[in-house]
Design goal:
The protein has 554 residues and is of the alpha+beta class. Helix content is 24%, strand content 43%. Strands 12, 14, 16, 17 and 18 form a five-stranded antiparallel β-sheet that branches. It is flat, with a radius of gyration of 33 Å.
Amino acid sequence: MKRESLKNSGKILVCAALIIGLASASSAKQLETEIEDAAIAVGDTTTLRVKIPGEAENIKPVKYPSVPGLKIEYSGMEHSYEYVNGKSWSGVKLIFMVTGMKKGRYRIPPFVFQRGNERLESREATLAVMPGTSGSSGNGDETAAVADIKSSVELSTAAAYIGQPVILRYYLLTVGLRAAVQRLNEYPDTKGFAIKMIDDPDHGSNGREGDYEKAHIVSFALIPAGAGAYRVGGGSALMSVEISGRRNANGFFGMNFPGMTRSQLLPFDAKPITIRPLPAQGKPDHFQGDIGSFAMRADFSDGPVKTFEEKKITITVEGTGNLITMTKPYPEREVQGLKIISEEGASSVAIDGGKLRGSRKFTYTLVPEKEGAFNPGRFMFSFFNPDSGRYKTIETKEISFTARGGDQRQGISYDNEKKERLDLNPLYMALIVLAVGGTIALVVFWERKRYRLVANTDDRRQDGDTKQDSSDNRDHLSEAAQCIERTDSEGFLRSAEKALEQIRKTDPGNSKSTAAGDFARIREEIYGYKFGRGTMSTADMKRILREIEDLKTK
């Protein structure tokens, strides 16, 4: 009897669990799903959008669908406002590129997200993938062949030294159709390298490679950090391909008209490269890792200065090589009583064939703290020339000057236009200061009494704001650095996103670097990893942390 009762209790618990599970699943909020094409050819790509009301900062992806025969990749995010039939909607749309890999009809299950305690699920979508061929599909459709579009990746050299810039170029090759790259969908894999996108005007025009038209997409400068064998490149771009003006069942009234386009992903190959260590023989004592071929000059005014008066020196280093992470020139000797303050000035960097060419300016402020003659000597800069295979140290002309003391006066003195001196007695000055201070103290004493009458009301009203502000004072950059040490990519993304938000609040008008697109680019990359690009590597986390720190200091 007792055993039978336990069996019944177990059944009841299982049923209760199923009911709770179904109730929780049904309580998930439904998100609208938009898919551009109901049918595509094998190898073609269509766009799927998931509409999320509100902002995306607190959205956490829980589950993305994986469908055999389809390739689903996160592409980006767009803010949207819609007003249809008297109803308005505002929020963000997560954009996914869906590529048909095999013929068939597919159901794309829901995308699942979490926002606080709220579970969000997109609606199911369907997609038909038709067979595609070089000229016409099996059902009589005319489509551009995937083989008619391909990419090309070029490196300026297959071998380089540590610190030597390597130019990475991406090209689009087409034949028999028109295509244009809209944006990079996935950036190159450059682990072990610093990377910077560089303008490349010499490769801006179209050319040919065999039967293909060759169009330049983008160029990067890579700075290798360590010796070894690497593969660099990869990634993908989103492009629009013009559809041929022939019959197509998916077109308007069965036709494709000129100007109609379809979206397609363009993958890029990775290229091998060997990075050699710098030779130990002949390395100068003050060598700091600079590499290239450079010349240097110093501009400053001659003549003496007064003690504690600034003497400005502008040093320009120009030539070819690593101008991106170039270190500062150093003085020949330290001089007691002479303070030297350095700062970076203007820079100009461009691609010249397979090299970086340009100039960097450095400003040095010399402040003599006593009288006498000062001679810090020449400013020097050491580098390794990869063409000659030798180290070299270049120098400016010798810098020397004299510092003279000014007139020694008692009290405080001023010079008027007639060069007449006005002396003030320190005792009178002290009495004036005491009188002014007493007056201020009396005013503050009476004002504080009046302030107490409304302090409690203001404190209660501002209590919520104070709590909110205190959360904004957290050092999210330090938290992001701790996440890197723990290799916690998910925690890093949260902290990095909050650090960007802090920077945005300090610069609401986007008057600084945000206007140049750096803020949006970093946020888009964070969202990319957050919503589908996968787990971040330690190198990528360190790079993004450095870029956010640079935004904060600009």
